[in-house]
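Board notes, transcribed. Complex of a protein with zinc ion.
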Amino acid sequence: MSDESSGGFRPETALVLFSGGQDSATCLAWALERFAQVETLGFDYGQRHAIELGCRADLLAGMKSLRPEWAARLGENHTLEIPTLAEISDTALTRDVAIAMGADGLPNTFVPGRNLVFLTFAAALAYRRGITDIVGGMCETDYSGYPDCRDETITTLQAALSLGMDRKFELHTPLMWLDKAATWKLADQLGGTGLIDLIREYSHTCYLGERGARHDWGYGCGECPACALRARGWREYAAGRVSA
Ligand code: ZN
């Protein structure tokens, strides 16, 4: 990894948390429309399936070919390995157990504090690279069970990171108040049918890591909570029933 901190601040550059899923792909397009340079960051934390990480390369290549200006703006694609997160998690995403709702009302796909860890690592990397704008796909609307996706969590963390690193970070969450249908519509507005088709074909959302069956909304088992949410959002978007 190159270190550009000696070159000073890069106010026209954003760092996007990019997992290869529908939400982060939409966030990447959002950033590419707003910043002169965009770098991406994915995390390898011992997921039960590495498919989502594998989708990143296909999506990046697709976005570059979709719009020449996006190709010119896309910079480095970083990957950070944080296997410790799997060690301290006991969830369906990192172990071979079934997805279910826990007694605490949270699905066992919830990795405690995952977004806090992701954003803190992202800020540390951004600091080293002179970047202060960080973009993430956290969303309060569809994920009421995930406390680290709440807007108040993100704005509070933004203050903590800015204080703790003595640099004024801005955490952008363009999907915070959108449901999945509105997220599809945002992708349409940002990149048209080309981007929609790219996200349907290459982004990955399924918790089980299945890529076998191709549905009209993309690949996945079709049954797990993530697939169900994505499929429902697609049906609403395709039917033109989008409020945002
Ligand atoms: Zn699934």
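The longest strand covers residues 37-44. Strands lie at 13-17, 37-44, 74-81, 133-135, 170-172, 214-215, 218-219.
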